[in-house]
Design a protein that fits this description.
With about 350 residues, the protein is an alpha+beta fold. It has helices spanning about 70-80, 100-105, 125-140, 170-185, 200-205, 225-240; strands at about 15, 20-35, 35-50, 55-60, 90-95, 145-150, 155-160, 160-165, 185-190, 210-215, 255-260, 265-270, 275, 285, 290-295, 305-310, 315-320, 325, 330-335. The chain has a 15-stranded mixed beta sheet that branches. A 4-stranded antiparallel beta sheet has the order 16-15-13-18, with no helix packed on it. The radius of gyration is 21 Å and the shape is globular.
């Protein structure tokens, strides 16, 4: 008689022992059957560094495959971190959506899955849904703290910030804010998501963990500055968790605090064409100010459509490619505030 229990165990198996001390480099193995390999497996790299008693930090990047700051910094950390440096455990997954990272794409070329829109996942679903299910049911429960490194990928460029979300649990929100501040990015943001329902962020927060997400550049590349900010932030996060010794490494200036009061912060296109941005990252804008013009590329002599800011603030993100389609985000504007503590 077959079992009808749900959910069934994940098809993903780990070649590392999460309970063992020391350093282990291995894989999360997901069986796949594709034209190139009938009995193949997707081999997602993972590193576990552990020593003694202490908290567990789950560090992820590559949830979107064209966001390289976190991928690079976590590869470097996996190469460098040694057990004698830690008190507790660090789980490092530099390319959570491995197919997307190998293809240099935001989404997986196998199933077009966006891992950050696939939680809580499904053990009987697509490849991307199975990865999300394993992270949700196996990795998140093991951690006390989670850090997810993002950037703008090929389509956005974003001010380097660490972010947290408003949560129903005030103590959890305060703990996430403290961790985001200690990341010591140039900016720290209380973030409003366009669609939080199926995010990795929401999956971590629902399990009561202390969570920080980041945006650390963009354009589908990285720079010495953006990777340096990411590396410093990861070290600071592990110090904040109590896993590494020392004091957080402060940036030259205290982080600038930003908040997004509503989804009105997103200026999105209702036209397709050639994008002319009239503001730059970090610019201060006034409500009603022109932020962009979109030109009809099918003809000359047509006046461009102007897009204006609905509120005053700082330009924290901008579209990177010069062509724009309907529904694309053009700019994101956040408010500068003195403090991000709840009133």
């Amino acid at each position: 008689m077959t079992s009808t229990s749900w959910p069934r165990p994940s098809s993903i198996t780990a070649t590392v022992d999460f309970s063992a001390e020391g350093i282990q480099h291995g894989f999360l193995k997901l069986p796949v059957s594709v034209d190139e390999s009938a009995w193949g497996a997707l081999m997602i790299p993972i590193t576990v560094v552990a020593r003694g008693e202490g908290p567990t930090a789950l560090l992820t990047a590559g949830i979107h495959g064209d966001e390289y700051e976190g991928i690079t910094a976590l590869h470097k950390l996996a190469n460098a971190l040694q057990p004698e440096q830690v008190e507790g455990r660090v789980i490092i997954v530099p390319m959570a959506n491995l197919p997307a990272a190998m293809a240099g794409q935001r989404t997986s070329p196998i199933d077009k899955g966006n891992l950050n829109r696939s939680f809580p996942g499904n053990p009987d679903g697509s490849v991307t849904e199975q990865i999300a299910d394993y992270i949700n049911r196996v990795l998140i429960p093991k951690c006390d703290y989670a850090l997810d490194c993002h950037s703008g990928g090929k389509t956005l460029d974003i001010l380097p910030f660490a972010a947290f979300h408003g949560l129903d649990n005030e103590l959890q929100e305060r703990a996430c804010l403290a961790a985001a501040l200690n990341f010591s990015a140039p900016y720290v943001l209380k973030m409003v998501e366009l669609d939080a329902t199926r995010l990795y962020d929401s999956a971590v927060e629902r399990q009561g963990k202390i969570f920080v997400t980041t945006e650390l550049g963009g354009g589908g590349t990285s720079t010495p500055l953006s990777v340096g900010i990411t590396e410093r932030g990861i070290t600071n996060f592990l110090i904040h968790c109590g896993i590494l010794e020392g004091e957080p490494l402060a940036s030259a200036q205290p982080p600038i605090c930003l908040e997004m009061p509503s989804s009105d912060c997103y200026v999105q296109s209702e036209h397709s064409g050639l994008l002319e941005l009239t503001v730059a990252l970090g610019d201060h804008v006034n409500a009603g100010q022109v932020t962009a013009r979109i030109y009809d590329m099918t003809r000359t002599g047509a006046e461009p459509v102007e897009y204006r800011a609905r509120s005053a603030g700082i330009v924290m993100a901008r579209r990177f490619p010069a062509q724009v389609g309907m529904g694309d985000t053009i700019v994101v504007i956040a408010n500068e505030v003195a403090s991000l503590e709840r009133a």
